[in-house]
Amino acid sequence: QVQLVESGGGLVQAGGSLRLSCAASGSIFGFNVMGWFRQAPGNQRELVARITSGGSTNYADSMKGRFTISRDNAKNTVHLQMNNLKPEDTGVYLCNLGMLGYDYWGQGTQVTVSS
Questions:
Q1: pLDDT tens digits for range 37-92
Q2: If you ran DSSP here, which 8-state letter would residue 56 be given?
Q3: What's the angle, vertex CA 86, arms to CA 109 and CA 93, rounded to 5?
Q4: How far apart (Å, rounded) are the C-alpha atoms in residues 13 and 23?
Q5: Under 8 Å between Cβ of 97 and 32
Q6: Are 94 and 80 in contact (CB under 8 A)?
Q7: Which of 47, 50, 41, 42 is nearest to 92 (CA)?
Q8: Per the count of CB atoms within 10 A, which of 22, 26, 41, 86 is most buried?
Q9: In b/e form, how buried is each residue of 95-104, taking b as 16+ CB within 10 angstroms?
Q10: For residues 19 and 67, is the Cβ–Cβ distance under 8 A?
């Protein structure tokens, strides 16, 4: 059983920064992809960024240049450094792990950006 626990959300003013972390536990092996999705009220869940176990990354266009995803395979953790935050970045950020055709999700952490 895989479990994901996020941390690092909070309230920040526009232009500020936050760093989210996600710790995965359980049987994690082989090729996998860890990432962050965002769920805002009234909107569909959308990809923010993801990173493979080999280190390849991709970002949603609106996050490029502002957000950086990284991971530590030895610790099964993934981080999201978010800079120059905007009010439209507000939402619940959910950690995701894709492995062997299965998707695992964390409970999410709230990020609120005030204008």
A1: 999 989 999 999 999 999 999 999 999 999 999 999 999 999 999 999 999 999 99
A2: -
A3: 15
A4: 26
A5: yes
A6: no
A7: 41
A8: 22
A9: bbbebeeeeb
A10: no
